[in-house]
Design a protein that fits this description.
With 97 residues, this protein is mostly beta strands. The protein has a domain of 63 residues. Helix content is 0%, strand content 40%. It contains no helices and eight strands. The strands form two sheets. It has a five-stranded antiparallel β-sheet, with no helix packed on it. Strands 1-2-3 form a three-stranded mixed β-sheet, with no helix packed on it. Strand 1 and strand 2 form a beta hairpin.
Length: 97
């Protein structure tokens, strides 16, 4: 890990060009692992309030590739969940908008 004088953090690089810059010569540069039944996602925030969240939902995996569907969720200006803008079912690949 490298912390540049401007505050940018580099993992796998000594020349980070963003607040967090991850580089890996392997096929996987960033991994999020979570226990079964918990949401795992990333938030896009404005002024410390969520605007969008994307990631795997908390649906328990029950075999047959069921559960952990991928979702994009929109949030209100006050930071409350507004709607799931899109869901991709892991078991079928079907997309719901």
């Amino acid at each position: 890990m490298f912390i540049h004088q401007d505050g940018n953090v580099g993992i796998g690089t000594t020349t980070p060009v963003h607040k967090l810059h991850i580089y890996s010569a392997s096929t996987s540069a960033l991994v999020m692992d979570r226990p079964v039944g918990f949401f795992g996602g990333y938030q896009v925030r404005t002024s410390n309030s969520p605007r969008w969240v994307f990631g795997a939902d908390a649906t328990v995996e029950s075999g047959g590739n069921v559960g952990s569907d991928f979702q994009f969720t929109a949030y209100t200006d006050a930071g409350a969940g507004l709607w799931n803008a899109m869901t991709i079912q892991r078991s079928t690949g079907n997309i719901g908008i």
